[in-house]
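Model it.
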Amino acid sequence: MAVAAGVVVISSLSVALGSSRRSDITPVASKPLTSEVDAEKPTKTSEPLVTVPNVVGMSGGEATSALSAAGFTVDLGSGDPTMPVIAQSMAGGSQAAAGTTVRLTVEEKPPLSIGQQNALRSAAQYLGFMHFSRAGLLKQLTSEYGEGYPAEDAEFAIASLEQAGKVDWNAEAAEAAQSYLDMMAFSRDGLYDQLTSEYGEGFTPEQANAGLAAVGY
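Modeled.
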């Protein structure tokens, strides 16, 4: 009986202590989390819209420059940048956010004829071992005493090199000017005349002046 009574007393004491502890706890009010989270959210501002340029008819390269200047990203795919644009994914005059990608479709480049291939090869070879103005190279390619290519093939070859960035006429003029000065003395006016004359090199006045400046004249 003594053991049983002890158990009862301890049990009663535990209940009393538990009750006392619970009475000391003050409930804490829950904080309104929603308002704090909402306060941390940044305020969204709508991006200004930009008018899409109409680039149909431009070359792929020109269209890319125009769209990039307006703030758009351009996807030309595997198209040749020298060929004209025939379609754009966003119509000219429509509006879109800056950075939007505009996809361009260009005409397929036709295969070169044998004459065009050889004229292109000849033009590159001439420029590789001596200086030429555009007029001088065209004359060399078409002359009966030169290569004898048809004018259209020669013009195609030179234009292809220009579009590919493989010829710098100012640099050619500088090479010509230095070559003349290495052979003999020239005044600036005399060298200018030699560079621009149709019986000399045939450079444009702008190209001749750039060449003279490059050699210190």
